[in-house]
Amino acid sequence: MKTVKTFARQFSFGLMMAVTLGSAVVSCDSILDEDDVDCSVEYRVKFKYDYNMKYADAFSREVSSVALYAFDDNGKLVYQKTEAGDVLAADGYSMAVDMEPGDYHLITWAGLSNEASFSVPLITQGVSSLEELQCKMDRIYSRAADGSAVVSSKLSSLWHGEVTKQSFTRAATQQVVTVPLVKNTNTIRVILQQMDGVTVDVDKFEFTITDDNGLMNYDNKLISDETLTYYPYYRAQGGTVVGKSARAEGDGAAAEDDNISVAIAQITVGRLVEENNPKLTITNTETGETVLSIPLVKYLLLTEAEGHDMTNQEYLDRQDEYNMTFFLDESMKWINTRIVINDWVVRFNDMNM
């Protein structure tokens, strides 16, 4: 009997302590002025960039600056913080944020700096709204009669991140939330290849990409913008010699080695969106003739079905480098029966794009 009573007293004491502790936890969410209750919580935000073709987090290697913005339920800015430099490359990096418990809409623009190719407006805590947080690509204006907008330098890398509703609570002494990032900038490498021994002079060709993708909203959707004309930031030409075994299938046999002459142009562009219609145009500056003019996104998506289990837009967002090889005949005209995109050979005879 004594043993049972002792157990009962111990059980009652344990239950009382559990209830007391439970009440203390609840009090952190309800009684904020209790001096004898330690309700301090450390909030941290971690950034992740694994939305790429390798599915590996490349944040520490690629991202050099992050700007975090938090908006309340009314869409008003309540907090912002920026960090940059070597601290972002440290193992286990996360940003410490001084915020009150509550629900927030988190937005991140990463890659912004004084030397960046993009900018966001200065917004004021407690005043500015979510809709004001737009990101604009820098551009210059040509001296032509139409004063068209031009981007001719290499774009700095830009990322966007968003969590539409994140709850910061007092349920633990530390809370870490993650904001995933999407890369908005792309490199297009265009190669003109001539396999009949005729030299391809890169200076005799003009390469351009046109798109209206220079203004992004807080949710990373494109906003109506003027048409931008992108020009190469890098141009080169070269050649090599390959034997018969290295010739592409279907090009015929060769008794001797073949000369391959190429012209290369690299262009950086903003976010590629399936609904837009950017155009890649190559013009022969000697003759004034258009060598090719193609809908860029539609051609890039020709390879999406080859081993990629994802939507078209996901592929465009994950892939940030594209190599496109076009083949020219001896008169420097495009042989429009096949192209090579990122090592995928696409063959067609007549394609209405």
TrEMBL record:
Lipoprotein as a keyword of this entry, yes or no, is: yes
Question: Which InterPro entries does the annotation name?
Answer: FimB/Mfa2/Mfa3 (IPR014941)
Q: Which coarse location class describes where this protein primarily resides? A: membrane
Which residues, if any, are the signal sequence?
A: 1-18
Record-level GO cellular component terms:
cell outer membrane
Spell out the subcellular localization from the entry: Cell outer membrane
A Pfam family assignment:
Mfa2
* Full protein name: Fimbrillin-A associated anchor proteins Mfa1 and Mfa2
Annotated organism of origin: Phocaeicola massiliensis B84634 = Timone 84634 = DSM 17679 = JCM 13223
